[in-house]
Amino acid sequence: MIPRILTLALLGSSALAQNVVHYTTTIDNVKYLFGTTEPVARLKPGEILDTNTLDCFGNVLRKPGDTMSMVKGDNPLAGPFYIEGAEPGDTLAVKILDLKVDGDTGVGAYSPGFGALSGSHYTPVLEPPLKDRVWFYPIDHASNTATYKAQDSDFSVKIPLHPFFGCIGVAPANGEARSSIVPAEFGGNMDSPEASVGNTVYLPVNVKGALFYIGDGHAAMGDGEVAGSAVEVPLKARLQFSVIKGRTIEWPEFENDEAIMTVGASRPVDDAARIAFTELVHWIHRDYGLSDLDAYELLSKVAKVHFNEMVDPNYVVVASVEKKYLPPKRR
Question: What is the DSSP-derived secondary structure letter of residue 328?
Fold first, then answer.
């Protein structure tokens, strides 16, 4: 039996009653794969999911002296959540209504073989690996900051919070199951600050019900996530779902009132950028009416590129254009 607890909430000035589905994530019900498995809850389009997520270490690193050996798995995921009416070839739209850091401490960590400046299985070096190290980030909710404290000197600095999901995605196509550390066409571990409040995430539906997953909460992250971790935190979240029937996309997209954004995930990083820009050209042609060549020329003058991360099995780039540079959207 799939747990489903419904309450009523009032949203916006329309004061329309919306169903809210509550789900509690624990270390005992998380997943470590994006794939096809029994859903933990079902939602209809328009309904809101109210849930929590664990940090990428499963909430086990809490105090000085805790070590990476305590971590059971990377990026535990809440879900999957079945969205009624979603079928292969559709697009799942996920509006991020609210995100809050669920606690007073964030975690940053270095693990041997991980991070942009370290040797790995695919980029071996002869030098010995750096040793495990864990940093803790006190979070001040009143000032909306986390405090970085150096371990080898007496230095600290406050970092503004920008909560977002490191992992957000759906079950992959063709019956695949992909690790929660992988970003790809289905979304996954994109480490995209664009997965934040006020933005809508568009994901390709590959299986019936989409089977949506979230996790890997971040309170703040630098471009590239170069040492392999953000300020890792558990989150409390409210998300609203809709299904765009018959609209097929190949890669994840983001949108807000100001801009449209497309994702590319690959190695090398230039291929990730090519994917993101190709998808952005296609989006402009499809929804705003410019030819591919005109869109290509326009992006050469006004596009922006965000280098999200260079530490996961695929690197992630987001290309964007502000809507003020585009024609009116087709109806």
Answer: P
Helix (H, G, I), strand (E, B) or coil at 178: strand
CA distance 36 to 183: 17
User: Exposed e or buried b for every residue in 179-192, given b needs 16+ CB within 10 A?
Assistant: bbbbbbbbbbbbbb
Give me the residues paired with residue 187 across strands.
169, 184
Distance CA(70)–CA(258), nearest Å, equals: 43
CB burial of residue 141 (10 Å; 0-12, 13-18, 19+): exposed
Helices (H), 242-268: none
Angle between helices 269-288 and 292-302 (to 10 degrees): 120
| pLDDT, tens only, 79-94 | 999 999 999 999 999 9
pLDDT band at residue 266 using 50, 70 and 90 as cut-offs: very high
Close Cβ partners of 133 (under 8 Å, ≥ 6 residues apart): 109, 110, 151
Element (DSSP H or E) covering residue 297: helix 292-302
- The whole-angstrom separation of Cα 26 and Cα 76 is 9
Tell which phi-psi region holds residue 83, choosing left (phi > 0), alpha (psi between -120 and 50) or beta. beta
Q: What is the percent of the chain with per-residue pLDDT over 90, rounded to a whole number?
A: 84
Q: How far apart are CA 38 and CA 171, in angstroms?
A: 11
Q: What is the pTM of this model?
A: 0.92
E strand intervals along 44-180: 48-53, 77-83, 91-101, 105-110, 133-140, 145-149, 156-160, 164-170, 178-179
Distance CA 172, CA 184 (A): 9
Tens digits of residue pLDDT in 189-211:
999 999 999 999 999 999 999 99
Burial label, 97 (beta-carbon count in 10 A; 0-12, 13-18, 19+):
middle
